# Entry
Amino acid sequence: MLHATWVIPLLPLVGFGLLVLFGRRLGDPLAGWLATTMAAASFVMSLIVFSGLLGRSADHRVFTQTVWDWIPVGGFKVGVSFLVDPLSMTMCLFVTGVSTLIHLYSIGYMRGDRQFSKFFVYLNLFLFSMLVLVLGGNFLLTFLGWEGVGTCSYLLISFWFERATAASAGKKAFVTNRVGDWGFMIGIFLVFAHFGTTDYTRVLAAPALAHLSQSTATWICLALFLGAVGKSAQIPLFVWLPDAMEGPTPVSALIHAATMVTAGVYLLCRISPLLHLAPDASLVIACIGAATALIAATIACAQDDIKKVLAYSTVSQLGYMFVAVGSTAYIAGVFHMVTHAFFKALLFLGAGAVIHGMHDEQDMKRMGGLRRWMPVTSTTFLVGWLSICAIIPFAGFWSKDDILAGAWEYHGWVGNVLYVVLLVTAGLTAYYMTRQVALVFFGRERWREPEPAVAHAASNETVGDEESTHQPVGHGAGEHAEPHEAPWVMLLPLCALAVLAFAGGIFNLPYQPFNLLDKWLRPVVEAASNPRQFSTTAKIVSAVIASAVALAGIALALPIWERSAVHNELEPTVLRRAWYIDWLYARFVDGPGTALASFSAWVLDKRVIDGSVNGVATLVRGSGAQLRKLQTGYVRNYALGIAAGTVAILGYIVFRAS
Amino acid sequence: MLLAAATKPADWTVFVIASVIVLAGGLGVVSARHPVHSALFLVQTLFGVAVLFVEEAAQFLFAVQVIVYAGAIVVLFLFVIMLLGVGRPRERIVDVLKAQRPVALLIGVLGLAEFFGLINASVWATGTKSSAGQLTGPGSNVEKLGRSLFSTYLLAFEVTSALLVIAVVASVVLVRRPHAAADDEAREADAELERAG
Amino acid sequence: MSVPGAWYLSVAAVLFTIGAVGLLVRRNVLIMFMCVELMLNAVNLTFITFARMLDDVGGQSIVFFVMVVAAAEVVVGLGIIVAIYRRRVGATADDLHILKG
# Structure
């Protein structure tokens, strides 16, 4: 059963191929069903391979399968090989599962769009790339998948590329990712330089690591972490994620919440044996994660666009995962990754249903009281809300609590600081999510009122905010038309995800026979994680503190925002403008960046490089012109030349003879 | 059989006189105004060289030199000179290449100096003696030369006879006129070229 | 015995130089050809000298062949000169300079 691993990425690739060839002919909605079927089939295959892996004993759950030799160059051998172990199978399962649900949802969401089949072409290609990334058995194959998901992200963000903001958001995502990818590549080069191979099984094996110095390991880990920072939107490379909301909502749900952005966390878990040798790198990772979590949470408190709140929320939750990885609580990080995939995808899809039902309105200040009009959507959204606020017994509670506990235990007083930061962030999370829920589903039905000029002008200040033009609309866009519930293709995934967001905690309850994920993943990260044993008292105390903070946040936000949507003192401009980070980058790129590029183009490229190349040509031509004068055309001159040469040679012989 | 056991003074006398004849003729060839004079000086040189051949016990080649070189080749030269009427005052025009004459003389002097240096500085005859056959000894020069030509160098001999045939055919082809009109056209074209360049 | 070989070689060297300088200086094609003949004769003299010094009949055989080839060369060369003169009467070596670079 394990030998069927190669089928898992193959199925979406086949879907991609078929849709490229026949997608337009299949049309709306058949192309969508084909793509969904491929994703579902991939999920089924993942289950089969998973069961095969389960069948093995805990010590032998590593299986590699090389499909063919990709690069056999001398001492550098890279094959298209897949690595099946608990970590990659966990990723595989939730990636394919959530993807299937989102494919299904997209059939309803993208109905009526002119480029319906193209959307599914890209979605299937994305799924293929993500699976290659996750299943890849060596750094190079993972990098291939990494670049593939980056490309698909670009393609999907700028799906409605006729809109200037969407096109530039796509470019921003790609370029920012590229900075991270540079780090990833340096990391791969360093790995190859030191180990002579890029295979995971060989690089991460104990004998290979025994000869690695701490500084080398630190450099490798930091380089790879830079790649993760780009892909998973941490400080300072997180600026692309909010702009990526220009893409259709299923894209935001799939790529920018559940799967692609978790690639960075996956990579760091994969290299956990290396991180074990580089405690400084782990410290850096944890600190950056904590900073990102806090800052993103503060920004989310002042956003008006329903998707932007969720985008900054994603950045913040990813920060949590990085803190987990940095404080060597890898399993907690993976657990949160899984639960986050469930509830964040749920929240995004719910937001998409709201946008769809509100005829493409995205400004929360223009919504309100929707729970009467969209019962299913609001119920599922509320489930997601409670999960992200980490309320017992929802899934988010268990995973966030694991991370908090792991942070506290890390490295003495640093861990304590991290814990406090994460606790404050948890409070902020509860606050802004409750604010969102209150603005959208509770309170006055503000969409019935004519647009107030002041509020609208204020809301336009948010970074990159624009009225979305979800094109085309499947139904008439009336200004005061009533919101309606989404079709069943969109509601079914919402319900499925709601169940998972509620009950997902059972995968890793912190009590002995139930910590399934912990036992499952432990062999993979064995070397790196510290065995933590918390007493029951400690667990209960931490649960109480976290819950208290969350409830405080909810209690603060709900009454304020349910009553009125206008609270300018709670939404300072600095937060609206995301701490002016984007503005800073723009100033830098516009000023020194452009100057540098200009210098490189006009001086370096044109004068130095072109000059030297042209200079060589001019030199040759000039010397040729001079040499041409030797050819006078007179035979006697040539004879004179010969005679002179002969005399010279004779002279040399005389010199030698004497 | 002109040579007996030669005594030194006689040899020297003959050598000096013959050398003077050769070199004077050479200078005459180079400096004569009229090509016919040049050809006659050439004959003088060839005769002188022939005498030197005899001095060096190459009797057969002396005869061949006189018959072929002086008797046939120079006559051919004279035929062509008189046929073409060469020697008009055209050559009195100033030399286009001004540096040619001085440089040529310089090269000549240098080369001569080097030759003398080489001749006197080293021993020249260091090769294997009689590698192709003995020159001295019983038998006439003709016999020895003939034996060498028809045994060791037989292939070269046959090739040279072929070469002669080729030369004759080539010369006939070269001077053939296709038809008179083409010649005049060709002359017109050349005249134009000269006016332009 | 006969005159030492070095003297003959010197005479041949001078003759060769005269011929070379004449070739470089004169412009009349026929006279240039005669200078070539001078040089060939000088070479022949050198060969004969060495044949005597090394007691080798091979030297004289070479001279034989040189004479044959010189004769053939003169025939062809004069044919070329006649062909040139037919086109352009009174041509000298300097007139053929169209192939300048």
Notes: DSSP finds three helices and no strands in chain C.
